[in-house]
Amino acid sequence: MRPVAERRIHQIFEVSVWLKGAHALIECFGGVLLYLATTDTIVSWVKAFTQDELIEDPNDLIAGYLSQAASHFSIASKEFYAFYLLSHGLIKLLLVVGLLRGKLWSYPASLVALGAFIVYQVYRYTYTSSAGLLVLTLFDAIVMVLIWHEWRIMRENQPAAGTLGG
């Protein structure tokens, strides 16, 4: 039986994994939407979304950025982001299912995948300076610590190889 502090850490681990799963589903959904939508449709959605804000405040930073980004959105960009979101989401979903089922392979695989995502997110941050990327990277780092902690406990509680249970 786990002490109270360990149970609390495990609960935080489970919540964080469920949140990663929800984020992965959103990424998959967004990737599929990007694959299905045309670039003209995306530009018209962004214009509809930002139009009122830009009329009210032509210097609105976010609406201006979104409007400008949409005007330069190419088919290649759309396909890259669609592939990135879908593949990223599917990888995370696979790992989340493994973690929630307590599969030992999923712990090191999750650490490697999240580590790779963090490296890429930091790289992207150097180009975009996106606060969202920093938040996502911080969350991923916290989840990595929780996964490492859970993996360590799972390995400690596993019967030694070659022993008979029963």
Helix content class: over 70%
Order of helices and strands: HHHHHH
The portion of residues forming beta strands comes to under 5%
Low-confidence stretches: none
Give a short account of the largest sheet: none
Overall 3D shape = elongated
Structural class: mainly alpha
Number of strands: 0
- Count up the helices: 6
The end-to-end distance, rounded to whole angstroms, is 19 Å
List the helices and strands and how they pair.
Elements: H1 4-36, H2 39-56, H3 61-71, H4 75-100, H5 106-128, H6 131-157
Q: Which descriptors would you attach to this protein?
A:
166 residues, mainly alpha
In short:
The chain is an all-alpha fold. It contains 6 helices and no strands.
Q: Your description of this structure?
A:
With 166 residues, the chain is mainly alpha-helical. The chain has one domain (4-155). The chain has 6 helices and no strands. The chain has helices spanning 4-36, 39-56, 61-71, 75-100, 106-128, 131-157. The longest helix has 33 residues, at 4-36. The radius of gyration is 20 Å and the shape is elongated. The model has no long low-confidence stretch (mean pLDDT 86).
